[in-house]
Amino acid sequence: MRKRLLIAVVAAGAMMSFGGRANAAPLTDTTYTVKGGDTLSGIGSRCGVDWKKIQTANRLANPNRIAPGTTLKIPGSAACTSPKPAAPRQAPAQPQPAAPADPNAPAAPVAAAPVAAAPAGFGYGIQIHAPDGDQRAVDAVSDIGFNWVKQQVEWFRYEGSPGQANFAGLDNLVNQANAKGINVMFSVVKAPDWARAGNSDRSVAGPPADPNTMASFLGRMAEHFRGRVKAYEVWNEQNLHYEWGNEPLSAGRYVQILCASYRAIKASDPGAVVVSGALTPTGVNNHLAMDDVNYLSQMYGAGLRGCANAIGAHPSGYNKPATAGVGWSAPGKTDFSGHRSFYFQGTMQAYRNVMARNGDGGKKIWATEFGWASVENMGAGPAPGYGYAAQNNEGEQAQYLVDAFNMARSWGYVGPMFVWNLNFAPVAGNADEKAAFSIVRNDWAPRPAYHRLKGMSK
After folding, report:
1. Which residue of 52, 179, 289, 391 has the lowest C-beta tally within 10 Å?
2. Cβ pair 233, 277 in contact under 8 A
Protein backbone atom coordinates (compact mmCIF):
# COMPACT_ATOMS: atom_id res chain seq x y z
CA MET A 1 0.00 0.00 0.00
CA ARG A 2 1.00 3.64 -0.26
CA LYS A 3 1.03 5.41 3.05
CA ARG A 4 0.11 9.05 3.09
CA LEU A 5 0.71 11.62 5.77
CA LEU A 6 -2.38 12.48 7.75
CA ILE A 7 -3.50 15.96 6.78
CA ALA A 8 -3.98 18.34 9.67
CA VAL A 9 -4.71 22.00 9.99
CA VAL A 10 -1.99 24.10 11.54
CA ALA A 11 -2.14 26.75 14.07
CA ALA A 12 1.58 27.35 13.58
CA GLY A 13 3.40 26.36 10.49
CA ALA A 14 2.06 23.28 8.66
CA MET A 15 0.71 23.82 5.19
CA MET A 16 -1.66 22.21 2.70
CA SER A 17 -0.70 21.36 -0.85
CA PHE A 18 -2.22 19.12 -3.41
CA GLY A 19 -0.91 17.09 -6.32
CA GLY A 20 -1.87 15.52 -9.60
CA ARG A 21 -0.34 14.61 -12.93
CA ALA A 22 2.76 16.30 -14.24
CA ASN A 23 2.77 18.36 -17.41
CA ALA A 24 5.54 18.86 -19.98
CA ALA A 25 9.15 19.30 -18.86
CA PRO A 26 10.14 22.88 -17.90
CA LEU A 27 12.65 25.01 -19.75
CA THR A 28 14.15 26.87 -16.76
CA ASP A 29 14.21 26.38 -13.01
CA THR A 30 14.42 28.39 -9.81
CA THR A 31 14.00 27.55 -6.13
CA TYR A 32 11.57 28.64 -3.47
CA THR A 33 11.78 28.28 0.32
CA VAL A 34 8.45 27.38 1.90
CA LYS A 35 7.11 29.90 4.43
CA GLY A 36 4.41 29.66 7.04
CA GLY A 37 0.98 29.81 5.40
CA ASP A 38 2.17 28.64 1.97
CA THR A 39 0.27 26.15 -0.12
CA LEU A 40 1.55 24.45 -3.23
CA SER A 41 -1.14 26.06 -5.36
CA GLY A 42 -0.27 29.47 -3.93
CA ILE A 43 3.42 28.95 -4.66
CA GLY A 44 2.55 27.89 -8.18
CA SER A 45 0.51 31.05 -8.67
CA ARG A 46 3.32 33.32 -7.46
CA CYS A 47 5.91 31.50 -9.59
CA GLY A 48 3.73 31.21 -12.68
CA VAL A 49 3.93 27.42 -12.69
CA ASP A 50 1.26 24.73 -12.45
CA TRP A 51 1.47 23.38 -8.88
CA LYS A 52 1.31 19.84 -10.28
CA LYS A 53 4.66 20.42 -11.97
CA ILE A 54 6.14 21.49 -8.64
CA GLN A 55 4.88 18.31 -7.00
CA THR A 56 6.44 16.17 -9.71
CA ALA A 57 9.74 18.05 -9.86
CA ASN A 58 10.23 17.63 -6.10
CA ARG A 59 8.99 14.04 -5.99
CA LEU A 60 6.57 14.92 -3.21
CA ALA A 61 5.29 11.54 -2.11
CA ASN A 62 2.62 13.32 -0.08
CA PRO A 63 1.61 16.54 -1.79
CA ASN A 64 -0.72 17.32 1.10
CA ARG A 65 2.01 18.60 3.37
CA ILE A 66 4.88 21.00 2.81
CA ALA A 67 6.83 22.19 5.82
CA PRO A 68 8.26 25.67 6.43
CA GLY A 69 11.94 25.86 5.51
CA THR A 70 11.68 23.25 2.76
CA THR A 71 13.42 24.35 -0.45
CA LEU A 72 11.42 23.46 -3.53
CA LYS A 73 12.63 23.31 -7.10
CA ILE A 74 10.31 25.42 -9.29
CA PRO A 75 10.46 24.13 -12.87
CA GLY A 76 9.98 26.57 -15.73
CA SER A 77 10.17 29.74 -13.62
CA ALA A 78 12.88 32.38 -13.41
CA ALA A 79 11.57 34.01 -10.23
CA CYS A 80 8.69 34.01 -7.75
CA THR A 81 6.89 36.98 -6.24
CA SER A 82 6.61 37.45 -2.49
CA PRO A 83 3.59 35.93 -0.79
CA LYS A 84 0.81 38.17 0.39
CA PRO A 85 0.22 38.29 4.14
CA ALA A 86 -2.15 35.53 5.13
CA ALA A 87 -5.53 36.46 6.52
CA PRO A 88 -6.26 35.21 10.04
CA ARG A 89 -7.56 31.65 9.93
CA GLN A 90 -11.04 31.04 11.21
CA ALA A 91 -11.67 27.66 12.75
CA PRO A 92 -14.42 25.69 11.02
CA ALA A 93 -17.76 26.12 12.70
CA GLN A 94 -18.68 22.99 14.61
CA PRO A 95 -21.54 22.11 16.92
CA GLN A 96 -20.63 22.27 20.58
CA PRO A 97 -19.82 18.75 21.73
CA ALA A 98 -21.83 17.18 24.44
CA ALA A 99 -20.02 15.87 27.49
CA PRO A 100 -18.33 12.60 26.62
CA ALA A 101 -19.73 9.39 27.94
CA ASP A 102 -18.09 8.05 31.06
CA PRO A 103 -14.85 6.48 29.79
CA ASN A 104 -14.96 3.97 32.64
CA ALA A 105 -18.37 2.68 31.69
CA PRO A 106 -18.24 -0.76 30.03
CA ALA A 107 -18.66 -0.67 26.27
CA ALA A 108 -21.54 -2.62 24.77
CA PRO A 109 -20.17 -5.83 23.22
CA VAL A 110 -20.52 -6.63 19.58
CA ALA A 111 -23.77 -8.53 19.07
CA ALA A 112 -23.44 -12.27 19.54
CA ALA A 113 -23.01 -14.16 16.30
CA PRO A 114 -23.39 -17.85 15.52
CA VAL A 115 -20.03 -18.17 13.79
CA ALA A 116 -16.54 -17.36 15.10
CA ALA A 117 -17.33 -14.14 16.96
CA ALA A 118 -14.33 -11.83 16.92
CA PRO A 119 -12.75 -10.61 20.16
CA ALA A 120 -14.69 -7.55 21.29
CA GLY A 121 -12.20 -6.16 23.80
CA PHE A 122 -8.92 -4.29 23.69
CA GLY A 123 -6.28 -5.75 21.40
CA TYR A 124 -2.68 -5.29 20.27
CA GLY A 125 -2.23 -5.04 16.54
CA ILE A 126 0.15 -3.87 13.86
CA GLN A 127 -0.10 -3.23 10.13
CA ILE A 128 2.11 -5.40 7.97
CA HIS A 129 2.78 -5.57 4.27
CA ALA A 130 2.42 -9.24 3.37
CA PRO A 131 -0.40 -9.51 0.81
CA ASP A 132 0.91 -12.86 -0.43
CA GLY A 133 1.93 -14.08 3.00
CA ASP A 134 5.28 -13.52 4.72
CA GLN A 135 6.27 -15.93 7.46
CA ARG A 136 8.99 -13.60 8.70
CA ALA A 137 6.51 -10.77 9.22
CA VAL A 138 3.97 -13.03 10.93
CA ASP A 139 6.67 -14.51 13.17
CA ALA A 140 7.70 -10.98 14.17
CA VAL A 141 4.13 -10.13 15.16
CA SER A 142 4.00 -13.28 17.25
CA ASP A 143 7.39 -12.48 18.77
CA ILE A 144 6.26 -9.09 20.10
CA GLY A 145 3.19 -10.73 21.60
CA PHE A 146 0.56 -9.02 19.46
CA ASN A 147 -2.75 -10.70 18.68
CA TRP A 148 -3.90 -8.75 15.59
CA VAL A 149 -2.51 -7.94 12.15
CA LYS A 150 -3.93 -5.57 9.59
CA GLN A 151 -3.37 -5.96 5.86
CA GLN A 152 -4.64 -3.44 3.36
CA VAL A 153 -6.42 -5.15 0.48
CA GLU A 154 -6.50 -3.24 -2.79
CA TRP A 155 -9.74 -4.50 -4.27
CA PHE A 156 -8.66 -3.91 -7.87
CA ARG A 157 -5.86 -6.47 -7.47
CA TYR A 158 -8.25 -9.26 -6.54
CA GLU A 159 -11.21 -8.78 -8.87
CA GLY A 160 -9.97 -7.84 -12.32
CA SER A 161 -13.37 -8.47 -13.84
CA PRO A 162 -16.83 -8.65 -12.21
CA GLY A 163 -17.30 -11.78 -10.15
CA GLN A 164 -13.80 -13.14 -10.85
CA ALA A 165 -12.07 -12.82 -7.46
CA ASN A 166 -8.86 -14.65 -6.56
CA PHE A 167 -7.77 -14.69 -2.91
CA ALA A 168 -4.81 -17.08 -3.21
CA GLY A 169 -2.12 -14.75 -1.84
CA LEU A 170 -4.33 -13.55 0.98
CA ASP A 171 -5.05 -17.17 1.86
CA ASN A 172 -1.35 -17.65 2.52
CA LEU A 173 -1.25 -14.69 4.90
CA VAL A 174 -4.41 -15.70 6.75
CA ASN A 175 -3.21 -19.27 7.17
CA GLN A 176 0.15 -18.12 8.52
CA ALA A 177 -1.48 -15.71 10.98
CA ASN A 178 -4.13 -18.18 12.13
CA ALA A 179 -1.45 -20.81 12.74
CA LYS A 180 0.16 -18.39 15.20
CA GLY A 181 -3.14 -17.56 16.90
CA ILE A 182 -3.17 -14.06 15.42
CA ASN A 183 -6.43 -12.38 14.40
CA VAL A 184 -6.61 -10.78 10.95
CA MET A 185 -8.27 -7.56 9.82
CA PHE A 186 -8.51 -6.64 6.15
CA SER A 187 -8.82 -2.96 5.24
CA VAL A 188 -10.43 -2.97 1.79
CA VAL A 189 -9.90 -0.02 -0.58
CA LYS A 190 -9.51 1.04 -4.24
CA ALA A 191 -12.19 -0.09 -6.64
CA PRO A 192 -11.18 -1.70 -9.93
CA ASP A 193 -11.67 0.46 -13.02
CA TRP A 194 -14.64 -1.58 -14.18
CA ALA A 195 -16.51 -0.67 -10.97
CA ARG A 196 -15.86 3.08 -11.14
CA ALA A 197 -17.87 5.77 -12.86
CA GLY A 198 -17.03 6.38 -16.51
CA ASN A 199 -15.79 9.92 -15.85
CA SER A 200 -13.56 8.97 -12.89
CA ASP A 201 -10.02 10.32 -12.58
CA ARG A 202 -8.03 7.17 -13.36
CA SER A 203 -4.77 8.76 -12.13
CA VAL A 204 -5.86 7.99 -8.57
CA ALA A 205 -7.78 5.09 -7.05
CA GLY A 206 -11.30 5.74 -5.88
CA PRO A 207 -14.69 4.36 -4.84
CA PRO A 208 -17.18 2.33 -6.89
CA ALA A 209 -20.03 3.98 -8.75
CA ASP A 210 -22.50 1.42 -7.33
CA PRO A 211 -22.20 0.52 -3.63
CA ASN A 212 -23.46 -2.98 -4.41
CA THR A 213 -20.36 -3.87 -6.42
CA MET A 214 -18.16 -3.45 -3.34
CA ALA A 215 -20.76 -5.17 -1.20
CA SER A 216 -20.73 -8.15 -3.54
CA PHE A 217 -16.93 -8.37 -3.40
CA LEU A 218 -16.86 -8.13 0.39
CA GLY A 219 -19.65 -10.64 0.73
CA ARG A 220 -17.70 -13.18 -1.30
CA MET A 221 -14.52 -12.34 0.61
CA ALA A 222 -16.27 -12.84 3.94
CA GLU A 223 -17.70 -16.15 2.74
CA HIS A 224 -14.27 -17.32 1.59
CA PHE A 225 -12.58 -16.31 4.86
CA ARG A 226 -15.53 -17.15 7.12
CA GLY A 227 -14.24 -17.57 10.67
CA ARG A 228 -10.62 -16.98 9.59
CA VAL A 229 -10.65 -13.19 9.07
CA LYS A 230 -12.09 -11.55 12.16
CA ALA A 231 -12.67 -7.96 10.97
CA TYR A 232 -13.13 -5.87 7.85
CA GLU A 233 -12.46 -2.14 7.62
CA VAL A 234 -14.51 -0.67 4.79
CA TRP A 235 -12.35 1.93 3.02
CA ASN A 236 -9.68 4.28 4.34
CA GLU A 237 -9.54 8.06 4.92
CA GLN A 238 -12.50 8.81 2.70
CA ASN A 239 -12.55 12.44 3.88
CA LEU A 240 -9.43 13.10 1.79
CA HIS A 241 -9.62 13.79 -1.94
CA TYR A 242 -6.95 11.40 -3.20
CA GLU A 243 -8.29 8.53 -1.09
CA TRP A 244 -11.69 9.23 -2.67
CA GLY A 245 -10.56 9.32 -6.28
CA ASN A 246 -10.59 13.14 -6.52
CA GLU A 247 -14.38 12.86 -6.48
CA PRO A 248 -16.66 15.12 -4.41
CA LEU A 249 -16.27 14.25 -0.74
CA SER A 250 -19.53 12.84 0.58
CA ALA A 251 -20.17 11.20 3.92
CA GLY A 252 -23.61 10.16 2.67
CA ARG A 253 -22.22 8.35 -0.34
CA TYR A 254 -19.60 6.63 1.80
CA VAL A 255 -22.23 5.41 4.27
CA GLN A 256 -24.22 3.92 1.39
CA ILE A 257 -21.14 1.85 0.51
CA LEU A 258 -20.55 0.98 4.17
CA CYS A 259 -24.14 -0.11 4.81
CA ALA A 260 -24.32 -2.27 1.68
CA SER A 261 -20.97 -3.84 2.61
CA TYR A 262 -22.02 -4.38 6.22
CA ARG A 263 -25.10 -6.32 5.18
CA ALA A 264 -23.12 -8.45 2.73
CA ILE A 265 -20.36 -9.25 5.22
CA LYS A 266 -22.81 -10.15 7.96
CA ALA A 267 -24.81 -12.37 5.62
CA SER A 268 -21.65 -14.33 4.85
CA ASP A 269 -19.97 -14.27 8.27
CA PRO A 270 -22.17 -13.02 11.13
CA GLY A 271 -19.22 -13.17 13.53
CA ALA A 272 -17.04 -10.73 11.61
CA VAL A 273 -16.58 -7.24 12.97
CA VAL A 274 -17.26 -4.44 10.48
CA VAL A 275 -15.23 -1.28 11.16
CA SER A 276 -16.07 2.05 9.56
CA GLY A 277 -13.28 3.46 7.39
CA ALA A 278 -10.92 5.48 9.55
CA LEU A 279 -10.72 9.17 8.68
CA THR A 280 -7.62 11.29 8.24
CA PRO A 281 -7.25 13.80 11.09
CA THR A 282 -7.63 17.32 9.70
CA GLY A 283 -9.23 20.64 10.40
CA VAL A 284 -9.67 21.55 6.74
CA ASN A 285 -13.06 21.94 5.08
CA ASN A 286 -12.97 22.31 1.30
CA HIS A 287 -13.24 20.17 -1.82
CA LEU A 288 -9.90 18.50 -1.06
CA ALA A 289 -10.44 17.49 2.56
CA MET A 290 -13.10 17.61 5.23
CA ASP A 291 -12.61 18.00 8.95
CA ASP A 292 -12.77 14.44 10.28
CA VAL A 293 -14.97 15.33 13.24
CA ASN A 294 -17.45 17.08 10.94
CA TYR A 295 -17.29 14.16 8.53
CA LEU A 296 -17.90 11.63 11.31
CA SER A 297 -20.93 13.65 12.43
CA GLN A 298 -22.25 13.58 8.88
CA MET A 299 -21.67 9.82 8.73
CA TYR A 300 -23.92 9.44 11.76
CA GLY A 301 -26.52 11.63 10.10
CA ALA A 302 -26.43 9.31 7.10
CA GLY A 303 -26.99 6.12 9.13
CA LEU A 304 -23.56 5.03 10.36
CA ARG A 305 -24.83 3.73 13.68
CA GLY A 306 -26.65 0.76 12.14
CA CYS A 307 -23.89 -0.18 9.71
CA ALA A 308 -20.74 -0.76 11.78
CA ASN A 309 -19.72 -2.70 14.86
CA ALA A 310 -16.82 -0.34 15.59
CA ILE A 311 -15.62 3.12 14.56
CA GLY A 312 -12.25 3.39 12.83
CA ALA A 313 -9.75 6.09 13.75
CA HIS A 314 -6.23 7.17 12.72
CA PRO A 315 -5.00 9.11 15.78
CA SER A 316 -1.53 10.18 14.69
CA GLY A 317 0.83 11.90 17.11
CA TYR A 318 3.28 13.75 14.80
CA ASN A 319 5.98 15.14 17.16
CA LYS A 320 3.88 15.02 20.33
CA PRO A 321 3.83 12.40 23.10
CA ALA A 322 0.75 10.22 23.25
CA THR A 323 -0.03 11.75 26.63
CA ALA A 324 0.10 15.37 25.38
CA GLY A 325 -3.08 17.38 25.59
CA VAL A 326 -4.30 19.59 22.76
CA GLY A 327 -2.16 22.70 22.48
CA TRP A 328 0.93 21.20 24.11
CA SER A 329 4.28 21.69 22.41
CA ALA A 330 7.92 21.42 23.41
CA PRO A 331 10.85 23.70 22.50
CA GLY A 332 12.01 22.80 19.03
CA LYS A 333 8.73 21.04 18.31
CA THR A 334 6.34 23.96 17.99
CA ASP A 335 5.33 23.14 14.42
CA PHE A 336 2.58 20.59 13.86
CA SER A 337 0.92 22.00 16.98
CA GLY A 338 -2.24 23.61 18.21
CA HIS A 339 -5.08 21.94 16.36
CA ARG A 340 -6.75 18.87 17.83
CA SER A 341 -5.78 16.73 14.83
CA PHE A 342 -2.08 16.80 15.76
CA TYR A 343 -2.67 14.95 19.04
CA PHE A 344 -3.34 11.28 19.69
CA GLN A 345 -5.61 12.01 22.64
CA GLY A 346 -7.35 14.90 20.92
CA THR A 347 -8.56 12.81 18.00
CA MET A 348 -9.68 9.86 20.11
CA GLN A 349 -11.59 12.05 22.55
CA ALA A 350 -13.21 14.09 19.79
CA TYR A 351 -14.53 10.93 18.14
CA ARG A 352 -15.80 9.66 21.47
CA ASN A 353 -17.76 12.88 21.91
CA VAL A 354 -19.40 12.51 18.49
CA MET A 355 -20.30 8.90 19.21
CA ALA A 356 -21.83 9.78 22.58
CA ARG A 357 -23.74 12.69 21.06
CA ASN A 358 -25.26 10.26 18.57
CA GLY A 359 -26.24 7.64 21.13
CA ASP A 360 -23.45 5.30 20.04
CA GLY A 361 -21.17 5.48 23.05
CA GLY A 362 -21.42 1.74 23.58
CA LYS A 363 -19.32 1.03 20.50
CA LYS A 364 -15.55 0.91 20.62
CA ILE A 365 -13.08 2.94 18.64
CA TRP A 366 -10.57 0.83 16.73
CA ALA A 367 -7.34 2.72 16.07
CA THR A 368 -6.70 1.00 12.74
CA GLU A 369 -3.51 3.00 12.20
CA PHE A 370 -1.40 5.06 14.60
CA GLY A 371 2.27 5.70 15.10
CA TRP A 372 5.21 8.07 15.36
CA ALA A 373 7.86 8.56 12.70
CA SER A 374 11.59 8.72 13.47
CA VAL A 375 14.46 8.77 10.98
CA GLU A 376 17.12 8.35 13.66
CA ASN A 377 19.60 5.62 12.62
CA MET A 378 17.60 4.90 9.47
CA GLY A 379 20.21 6.06 6.97
CA ALA A 380 18.03 8.72 5.37
CA GLY A 381 16.56 12.06 6.34
CA PRO A 382 12.84 12.76 6.53
CA ALA A 383 10.90 12.63 3.30
CA PRO A 384 9.55 15.99 2.03
CA GLY A 385 6.64 17.04 4.21
CA TYR A 386 7.60 14.68 7.05
CA GLY A 387 9.98 17.01 8.86
CA TYR A 388 8.64 15.96 12.25
CA ALA A 389 10.26 12.54 11.68
CA ALA A 390 13.59 14.22 12.47
CA GLN A 391 12.18 15.64 15.71
CA ASN A 392 11.38 12.26 17.28
CA ASN A 393 14.29 10.10 18.34
CA GLU A 394 13.93 6.33 18.43
CA GLY A 395 13.52 6.27 22.19
CA GLU A 396 10.63 8.73 21.96
CA GLN A 397 9.03 6.73 19.17
CA ALA A 398 9.12 3.65 21.37
CA GLN A 399 7.86 5.44 24.48
CA TYR A 400 4.99 7.15 22.70
CA LEU A 401 3.75 3.84 21.28
CA VAL A 402 3.82 2.13 24.67
CA ASP A 403 2.12 5.10 26.34
CA ALA A 404 -0.61 5.12 23.71
CA PHE A 405 -1.43 1.46 24.31
CA ASN A 406 -1.42 1.81 28.10
CA MET A 407 -3.50 4.98 28.11
CA ALA A 408 -6.09 3.78 25.59
CA ARG A 409 -6.48 0.45 27.39
CA SER A 410 -7.36 2.37 30.58
CA TRP A 411 -10.10 4.36 28.84
CA GLY A 412 -12.29 1.29 28.35
CA TYR A 413 -13.82 2.38 25.05
CA VAL A 414 -10.99 1.36 22.71
CA GLY A 415 -10.81 -1.90 20.79
CA PRO A 416 -7.78 -3.29 18.96
CA MET A 417 -5.08 -0.74 18.11
CA PHE A 418 -2.81 -1.19 15.09
CA VAL A 419 0.68 0.27 15.07
CA TRP A 420 1.69 1.80 11.75
CA ASN A 421 3.84 -0.15 10.86
CA LEU A 422 5.97 -3.31 11.14
CA ASN A 423 7.95 -3.81 7.95
CA PHE A 424 7.65 -1.00 5.43
CA ALA A 425 11.36 -0.15 5.79
CA PRO A 426 12.47 -3.48 4.24
CA VAL A 427 9.59 -3.28 1.75
CA ALA A 428 10.02 0.32 0.56
CA GLY A 429 13.56 1.33 1.58
CA ASN A 430 14.79 3.87 4.10
CA ALA A 431 14.19 6.94 1.93
CA ASP A 432 10.45 6.25 1.72
CA GLU A 433 8.29 8.15 4.22
CA LYS A 434 6.72 4.86 5.37
CA ALA A 435 10.07 3.59 6.62
CA ALA A 436 10.28 6.20 9.38
CA PHE A 437 7.23 4.63 11.03
CA SER A 438 8.54 1.07 10.73
CA ILE A 439 9.63 -0.76 13.89
CA VAL A 440 12.27 -2.76 12.00
CA ARG A 441 15.06 -1.46 9.79
CA ASN A 442 15.44 -2.29 6.12
CA ASP A 443 17.57 -5.32 7.06
CA TRP A 444 14.89 -6.43 9.54
CA ALA A 445 17.01 -5.46 12.56
CA PRO A 446 14.60 -4.50 15.36
CA ARG A 447 14.39 -0.83 16.30
CA PRO A 448 13.95 0.23 19.97
CA ALA A 449 10.17 0.36 19.46
CA TYR A 450 10.16 -3.33 18.57
CA HIS A 451 11.85 -4.24 21.86
CA ARG A 452 9.68 -1.91 23.94
CA LEU A 453 6.47 -3.24 22.43
CA LYS A 454 7.66 -6.80 22.97
CA GLY A 455 8.40 -6.12 26.63
CA MET A 456 5.25 -4.11 27.26
CA SER A 457 2.72 -5.58 29.68
CA LYS A 458 -0.30 -6.81 27.69
Report:
1. 179
2. yes
